[in-house]
Design brief:
The complex is a heterodimer.
Chain A lengths: L2 H12 L8 E3 H13 L4 H18 L10 E2 L9 E7 L4 E8 L5 E8 L12 H13 L2
Parallel strand pairs in A: 1-5
Antiparallel strand pairs in A: 2-3, 3-4, 4-5
Chain B lengths: L5 E2 L1 H6 L7 H23 L4 H8 L3 H9 L6 H11 L10 E7 L4 E3 L12 E3 L6 E5 L6 E7 L1
Antiparallel strand pairs in B: 2-6, 3-4, 5-6
The chains are: A alpha+beta, B alpha+beta.
Chain lengths: 140, 149
């Protein structure tokens, strides 16, 4: 089997009973690409953990925060729920901030490195960013 | 909705195109499936990781590894998990065949009676649940199907 077919099988699994799929802000893609460059040599681990989080999102939807080390953001001063998904292994420590639209389609808004040793992530800097990106994605 | 800000799954996966092999992709898919099933099971049981660990006779750290790390499950470990959680467990390696037919065709002749469940006959494409539209990339005027055993 070549890589193209393997990707097709992966997409088939991730998009199973999820016709609306996943939507990523263009800056999320850019941020993730940069994170990957910084983590050179660990791409395979990151890929595997990313797919696991996408699978959680697909199967758990708005309950994705109940999976290990994921959380719902507090102090966002809005009635919209934002979630933080964790990609963590020995070397890797990435947070992805997401929300869901009215159709429960997951919207991936931002990705960043969490500094090592931090027990509680400070999202204060990121909340205005994800709110703005969310607006951009759902705006008319 | 503003399309200029919105990207699909393809664009995310493209980032990894040079870094992962077909094996990496398939193993990531299976690990994700296993972790998701175990995690959903714990959540549906309405128990914490610690309580789930006690139920399974393992440490909380191991539950955390199963859920969120790159833990490489052995078949024996998966069988033990299945027994404890009263789940079915199987490993399925399916034969696959990709066929290309003209886009205008609504019927597909499948000449693989001994290899694939779908048999050897002209069939309405829509009738098959085990035929997946694979892609349109074999030719501009062709559509491609992936057949599963």
């Amino acid at each position: 089997m070549n890589k193209e077919k393997a990707f097709e099988l992966l997409k088939e699994y991730l998009l199973e009973y999820n016709s609306l799929g996943f939507v990523f802000h263009s800056l999320f893609i850019k941020e993730f690409r940069n994170l990957l460059k910084e983590a050179s040599g660990h791409e395979k681990q990151i890929f595997s953990l990313l797919i696991k989080q996408l699978s959680f999102v697909k199967d758990m939807g708005v309950r994705v925060n109940e999976a290990d080390s994921n959380e719902k953001l507090k102090g966002t001063n809005t009635n919209i729920d934002y979630y933080s998904l964790h990609i963590q292994d020995k070397i890797v420590n990435i947070r992805m901030l997401i929300t869901f639209d009215n159709n429960n389609t997951p919207l991936f808004l931002s990705a960043f490195y969490e500094r090592a040793g931090k027990r509680v992530t400070n999202y204060d800097l990121w909340i205005p960013v994800i709110k703005e990106r969310h607006e951009e994605m759902i705006g008319e | 909705m503003k399309k200029e800000y919105r990207c699909g799954l393809d664009e995310l996966l493209k980032i990894f195109d040079e870094d992962v092999s077909a094996q990496d992709i398939l193993s990531a898919k299976v690990l994700a499936e296993v972790s998701t099933i175990i995690t959903k099971h714990r959540i549906n049981m309405k128990v914490t990781q610690k309580e789930f660990a006690e139920h399974m006779g393992i440490t909380q750290g191991m539950v955390s590894k199963w859920e969120s790390k790159n833990y490489n499950f052995s078949i024996k470990a998966l069988a033990e998990i299945a027994v404890k959680l009263d789940l079915d467990f199987s490993v399925r390696l399916r034969e696959m065949k990709v066929v290309c037919i003209p886009k205008t065709e609504e019927r597909l002749y499948i000449d693989c009676s001994n290899q694939f469940d779908i048999g050897n006959a002209f069939c309405e494409i829509d009738d098959f649940t085990n035929i997946k539209v694979f892609s349109d990339n074999c030719n501009k005027n062709m559509k491609e199907f992936m057949l599963y055993n």
